[in-house]
Amino acid sequence: MSTPAIKSQPIYAELEWDRTGTHHILFVSAEDAALAQRLLSNPPGGTLTVVHLRPADDSRSAWSQNLPDTALYLETHTLAEALEVLRDAFYVAQMGTRIYLAGAEDAIWQASQLADTFGVSRDEIRHAQLGTKARPVFCVHCRTITRGVHTNIVSCSGCGRSLFVRDHFSRRLGAYMGFQIDAEVPGEVPAAEVVYP
Amino acid sequence: MSSASLNVEIRRIRDLAPGIREFSLSRTDGDDFPVYSGGSHIVLSLPLGERTHRNPYSLLGDPTDRKTWRVAVRKQEDSRGGSRWLHEQAREGMRIDIAAPVNLFALNRLGRRHILVAGGIGITPILSQARELARLGADFEVHYAYRAPEYGVFVDELEALAPGRIHHYVQSRREQIEFSSLLAGRPLGTHFYICGPGGMVAASMNAGKALGWPESHLHSEQFLAPTGGEPFDVKLTASGKAFTVPSDLSLLEAIEQQGVDAPYLCRGGACGQCELEVVDASGELIHHDLYLSAEERASGKKIMPCVSRLKGGCLTLNL
Amino acid sequence: MTIAFKPDETFRGTYTYRNSPKGIRRFPFPFHQDQYMYSVNMEPHTKGPEGSVFENAFDIDEHYIAEMRDRAITLERDPGRCVSLPHMMDAEWDTLELIMESLSRDYPELFTLTKDGDRWHWVNKPLGIDQTFTFGNAATLPCPPFEYITRQTQGDFVIMDQRDNNLFADSGMITSQADWSLMFDAGMSFMEWHGPVPLAHELGVFERALKYLLMLQQGRPVRRLNWTMTINPRLDTSPETYPEWGPDRASVTPDNVGDKVHLRVELQALFRLPRSNGMLFSIRGYLASMNELATYPRWAKRLHRVLSTLPNELAEYKGLVRYKPTTLEWLSKFDDGEVLPAGTQPE
Q: Which residues pair with B235 in a beta bridge?
C-alpha cells in the first residue's frame, strides 16, 4: 500500500473484523470471493448483519454463501434500496456496532455519508474498495458529481467542462475534486487515459 | 505565568457539605469574565506561605454568566496544601490570580445523545456540561453518585436543569452505578462523559470497552493531584540551574521556584503542555501522567513535570 | 489614526486596486531570508507596532470598503462561498462577538458596539450599517451571525470544530482564497484539508502545528504568514472561477510584469473561541504588485532570490510555473547581489 501524495485520499486497508465491536454491520456491493471466504469463515463475536447489493440475476455470490447461522442477510438490488435498508439498520443499531463498507467508492462513500448522519465516528467505520476503481468526481465549477469515472480527465455530466480528476477527496461529498484542465489555455486538453479501471 | 491570568476576588464562600466548599469569584478590574465551554477548568494560584501553589478546578456555574465564576473544592486529607488552604485560610474578600479557562473535557457537538456521570466532587465539570446541553436543547441524562444524602451537592441546580433526567446513586443506601447496564443498548451517536474517582472512571471505561464502545465516544476527566515523593536533584541545561526538588513540591513547582518559566496548562498530568525533554536521568523516571504513550515512557526522553518525578539520582532537562 | 478609504477600487474587470505609499510601507513582506521553506512559524498574535498590520487583532485598511463590496459580488454570484455546518451555531456567535468586540475596541471611530444584556447595538460607519439585535437569536439578524459579521470584516475565515483530538473545517467564509474550495473542503480534518500542500507533510509541519493548536488558549491567539502570487489584483482566485482567472497566468509578458504580477501575503491568525471551544482561523490577505514592491529594492532583491531557489513542487502548487521565468527576469534588474541582513524590514 503506497502512501498517497495528497493526504485526503482514502487509504483502504485490507478489510478485517474489528473484534473490539459487539455488533457488526457489513455492506458489500461487489464480488470478492477470497475476501468473502476469509471474512465469513471466521466471523466476529456478537451480531452480524450483511446488507448485500447484488445484480438481480441468479448468479451465485460468495457473500450469500457460508454465512454464519446467526447472521442476518439482507439482499438488495439497487443502491437506493441498499441505502434504505442500511438506514433502518443504523436506526436500530447500538453503541458497540462496527460498520464495514466494501465495494466501489461511489457506493461505500454514499453509505458512509448516511452513517455520518447517525453520529458515527471514524473509529467505528471501515471502508474497503472492491471491484471497480471508478471514481465519483465533484465538479468545483457547477457542483455536479459525475459517477463511475475511469479516466484522469472526464467531461462533467453537469456543465460539460473537461475536468482533471485530482486525488483530493472529500468524505462529506463522497467524491474526488475535478477542475477544468484547460482553464489557463482553453482548448489545451490532453488525451484522457484510463487510470481508474 | 504560562497562561493568560486574571485577578479575582473571592466574593462568597459556601459550605455545601462536610469537607466541600464552593467559592464564587469575580474580577477585581470590574470587567466581565469571558464565557467558557462546558467542562472547562481554571488554575487557581494560591498563596501558601512563601510559595505559590497552583491547582486546577472545574468551573461549575452557568458558562454564560459573565459576572461570577464558581468552583467547588473538596478538602483532600493528603493535600499538600492547596485544598487545605482553601478550606482553612481562604476568606471572602481575598484576592487571587487565576488562569483563563482551558477545556480538556469538551462535549462532542455531533453527539446525538449524551450520558453524563459524576462521582462525588466530579459533579463540577458535569454540571457545566449539563447546563450547556440544556441550553442547546440536546438529549442528555445525568447519573450522579455520592457517599450519603448530605454529600449530594448541587442536586437542586441539576434537577432544575433537567427534571426527570437526573439519576441519583447514594452509597450509604448501597446504591451504585452498574456501568454495564447503563452503557448497554444505547443508540449510535451516544457519547459518554465521566468525572470521578480513579476506580470509578476505570470501571466505566472497562464496561464501555467490553460493550464495544469506541474510544472516541468515551470521555473522562481526572485530575491527578501531584503526589510528593523522595527528593531528587535536577539540572537545567538551557538556564544553567541546579537544585533539589524537595519531597513536598512537584518538579514543575520546584522549577518555577527557581524563577524559570516553564510551560503548563492543566497541572494535572492530562494536557501534555508541560512536556520536557530529558537529557539524562541517573535514576528511575516515575511517570504519573495520563498523557505520554507507553512508547514515549519507554524511550526515557520525556517527562511531564507537573506530576512526575525521579527516584534517586539526578535528572537533567533541556530547559 | 484615520484611514483614507478607497471605496471605488475594483478587484475584477478594471482592476483599479492600488496601494498608497503608506499601504506599501506596511505590507507584510514575508521573507526573512533568501530562501523559503515551510515551517511552524507561529508566534503570539499580540499587539504590534502602531500602523503595522499586526497592530490589531483584525486589520482594517484603506481597501476595506472595496473588499467588502467584492465579497458581496462573489456571494451574490455564488452563495456557496459561505458554508456553516449545523453544529457550529455557538461558534458562529463566538466569532461575531470576538470580531465586534475587537473592531469596536481597536477602531472606535469606525465601529461601535453597545450592549444592554443580550440586546446589542452595532454600528459600522464605513459600510453604513446600524443594527440592533438579540445576541444568541439568529432571527434578529438579516443573515446567520457568521455570515453577517464576516461580510463586514476583511479577510477570509474558517471556523474549526475541535473533537477527537483533531480540528475540522466546519464553517467558512472564503471569497479571496489562494485556489482552494471551501465547498469541497468543508468538514475536512486538519490533515485532509491541508492534503494538497506539498513537502510540508513530510517535514512534519502539520503534525506539529495541529498538536500546538489543540492546546491553544483563550485570549492567547497566534499568527503566521503565508504567501503566494496572483496575476492582477484579484481576490476571487477560487477553483470555482478558475476558468475566469486561469488564462491570466498565460498573459504575463516582460512589459506587464510590474503591473500584473502580485505578491499575495496571508496574515493567518488563530483564536480559541470561548463558548464552542472551537477555533477561528482568519486569513487576511494583502496584495502588492511587483512595481509597488520594487519601490523598496531590498524587497525586490529578496523576492528574486526566494523565487529562484523555490523548490519546483512549491512553484507548481502555488501555480507560478507559467510566469515565474518572466518575473525572475524582471526582478533580476534589481538584484545587485548585495548581502541582505536577515529580516523583512524595507529600507
A: B242, B316
